[in-house]
Design goal:
The chain has eleven helices and seven strands. The protein is an alpha/beta fold. Strand 6 and strand 7 form a beta hairpin.
Length: about 240
Amino acid sequence: MRQRRQKHAEASRAVVGYVRVSTEEQASTGVSLAAQEARIGAYCAAMSLDGVSIVADRGASAKSLERPALRTLLDRVRAGSVATVVVLKLDRLTRSVRDLADLLDLFAKHEVALVSVSEHLDTSSAAGRLVLNVMGTVSQWEREAIGERTATALAHKRIVRTAYSPTPFGYTRDGNALVPSPAEQDALAEAIRMDRAGASFREIGRMLTDRRVQPKRGGSIWYASSVRSMLRSRIVTETA
């Protein structure tokens, strides 16, 4: 009798397809949403997953999990009424490794399988869970590697005095090259000296204002926030 009740409870839990597009234009045309729904429907039919329902977030970014349809779906997961969540690709659900890990923990807690049609993943099996964890680890590595490469490239640009952001105080531009400005470099040197001697940003700003040194963003008055931004510039701190 107990086993019969358990099987009935499992059978009553739903299969839910989740689809998402990130822009209002995609949502209004419906092409991308329709394509996702069709692929999910075909997969569920092939795998004998009956009664699939579709929930959609239209014009919603994957940067966070704060999306109306996804919140509703997760509430249903917590309530125990969902057996399987099907997506066309994992990036429809989330682009964040951390958020994916949280979702997998939630699904595991409530015995919900996550299926990705395009990536041929199904966490109802041990192999599927292994592949998904490996993919998450590789994605995290890729993101950190990109960050390291970017940091190295920016450090090189600072060393060779190549512009990659608004022109810092103390320099002018010659194309993409940063060229020291003698007048600004003198003022910068005095500001650095005062900073190291313990002067406040407000005091340094008063000195620069009195010397009629013009901030890079225009105006004639140096505020404490402007002084702090100038003195904490990576170019300044790495060459001072």
